[in-house]
Automatic annotation (TrEMBL):
This is Photosystem reaction center subunit H. It holds the Pfam family DUF2382. Signal peptide: none annotated. It comes from the Bacteria. GO terms for biological process: photosynthesis, light reaction.
């Protein structure tokens, strides 16, 4: 058996215990003797074997030298409407006399006895003040045990009994469920640009080219004759201009294709398997107890 911290054991305690005051345990202020504020609740200690809540860790802050002390859960009366914890009959001086709680050290039996001693004295003082025999019962209840035989619910039941106004308070069974969420992360990037490539292109152009054709023929019988008086001269010329086509190749830019860049979203289902736990109810009957489990 060991006493362990609520916040260290359940880092997500605000969500895990959202249905009761444990989810806001550190929002409660502690008062002794009515409205005499002595500190605020910082954390709690519970039995790691039975799960029973045993102490509230109270930070006295600037009220009493700034030390931390332990308050047995049975000595605390909760006022949920005002988020207050009252320790009836305990004075500020008695809080000062409580041993300092050092969260770095384990809570052993001797330390708990020093803590219980202050609250037992308070119980005895209250009983004597009202003239009852409870003081004797308190002294007898805390004798005759060792560190190995001490039992919270037997030897100091008044210090560790939870204050329950409803005897039919339900036991809540918890179970773990998988809660799926999504994170948007960068999967990569695509850069779309353009570059220039060169290649040899070939084009064919039909060209026309003129040439001079000289045709000769003998004169016909109708035109044949003798020209006796013809004067022979040099220099008679027939001038014929000859043309040809030449290829004139140039380059022009044309739109070959258009490229649009956009994003599309596709969906897929990711499946993950995890082990989840759930609490089941254990029912142990003693003797002739008749138990009916109604579901």
């Amino acid at each position: 058996m060991a006493l362990v911290s609520l916040k260290e054991t359940y880092p997500d305690y605000r969500n895990q215990f959202s249905d009761n005051s444990l989810s806001h345990i550190d929002d409660y202020s502690v008062y002794a003797n009515g409205d005499d504020k002595v500190g605020s609740v910082e954390d709690g200690l519970f039995d790691d074997t039975t799960g029973q809540f045993r102490y509230l860790i109270v930070d006295t802050g600037g009220w009493i030298f700034g030390k931390k002390v332990l308050l047995p859960i049975g000595a605390a009366r909760f006022d949920n409407s005002q988020q207050r914890v009252y320790v009836e009959g305990l004075t500020k001086d008695q809080v000062e006399n409580l041993p300092k709680y050092d969260g770095s050290a384990s809570v052993d039996h001797d330390y708990e006895e020093r803590v219980r001693g202050v609250y037992r004295e308070n119980r005895v003082g209250q009983s004597a003040a009202v003239g009852t025999s409870a003081a004797v019962g308190t002294s007898a209840a805390v004798s005759g045990y060792t560190a190995d035989t001490y039992d919270y619910d037997t030897h100091d039941a008044d210090l560790y009994a939870m204050d329950r106004t409803d005897e039919n308070q339900p036991i809540r069974l918890y179970e773990e469920r998988l809660v799926a969420d999504k994170d948007r992360v960068r999967a990569g990037s695509v850069r779309v640009g353009k570059h220039v490539e060169s290649q040899t292109a070939e084009v064919s152009v039909p060209l026309e080219k003129e040439r001079v054709v000289i045709e000769r023929s003998a004169p016909g019988t109708t035109t044949a004759g003798v020209v006796g008086d013809h004067v022979f001269e040099d220099g008679e010329v027939a001038n014929v201009e000859v043309f040809e086509e030449q290829a004139n190749v140039r380059k022009e830019a044309f739109v070959r294709e258009e490229v649009n860049v956009r994003k599309e979203t596709s969906q897929e289902v990711a499946r993950t398997q995890e082990t989840v736990r759930r609490e089941e109810l254990d029912i142990d009957g003693d003797g002739a107890a008749d138990v009916v489990d109604k579901r």
